[in-house]
Design a protein that fits this description.
alpha+beta, 2 domains, 6-stranded mixed beta sheet, binds adenosine-5'-triphosphate
Amino acid sequence: MSIQLASVSKSFGPHRALNGISLSIEEGSFFVVLGPSGCGKSTLLRAIAGLEPIDQGEILLDGLPVARDGFHLAPEDRQVGVVFQSYALWPHMSVAGNVAFPLETLGKRRSAVSARVAECLETVALTPFVQRKPAELSGGQRQRVALARCLAQGAATVLMDEPLANLDPHLRSAMEEELASFHKASGATTLFITHDQREAMALADQVAVMWDGEILQVSDPDTLYRRPNSKRVAGFIGRSSLVPVTVEQVDGGNAVIRFGDVTVEVDCPDGTAPGPATLLLRPEHVVPATGATGFEGRVARIIYRGGHWEVFVSVEGLDQPLMMTMPRKAAPGDLLRLTVLRGWVLPR
Ligand code: ATP
């Protein structure tokens, strides 16, 4: 099932939770909506699921309108599965009963239901817990029951609202892998909501970055990381330094830029013109220089990140230190010779 939104808006009183959102989600893709708390992600998901009527715009599922001009198709008629951050499990039913419930209500044969339930519980590593009640499970285990229930329905479209938020980091990455392989095997169009950029990067075919009811950029994870379209997106995805620079020359997708005494060639978007600009430097763009080349920087502070150090280096002419990573520990005050490998001039 493909999902299209055209100029969708939704307000709660004076607050515009969705402000003219347009999105196109291809059939079978794993599409992640990434944004900070309160930016409208859940409202977007609820509008697609039919749980929240919209004020303006249009939502199409597989090309057919499900919401527009006062028309609102009921959630149960949209054929999408939803997994919420809160698990919404039946407290009186066992784990197996909860997963089987939607299949039973569809009138499936008992043997087919049990086989499917066993398969889905195996996928989320809950086989030993089939007879437990939700109250006898940890938060993470309950979340996995909710996931298994969604998998069992075999919906062609699955909407997930921060389904991994309550899991510990180890289980979280195991579940990420499960979700990725489930998605590959099922081919279900998946819309996944998160405020965790690492999770978005790990799972998505496409990521939409959302901010204050609007979509700032939609790209594959690599493009989003290397070619963000604004300071806001750059700051939200990965670690970076944003450096005020002067663009001296532009040649296609290359620009020669200057900051302080440093002149380097970097990547730039179409339409870049000479003059003041902001350069995005990821930590891997700032590296030790060989010989007498490069420029000087003094270590301002270091943070151990497990296997490497994140090092902040003060450079003359820059208000903010540059961030880089080093395999060895440096000490505050150390003088380093550095060079810049590429970087990205942000669109004005
Ligand atoms: P989080 O990551 O914290 O769950 P979110 O990005 O999912 O946040 P939403 O739940 O979509 O954000 O909420 C968007 C905005 O709309 C918030 O400011 C929220 O307070 C407001 N809002 C959401 N639902 C309602 C409601 N039913 N009534 C009034 N305001 C609401």
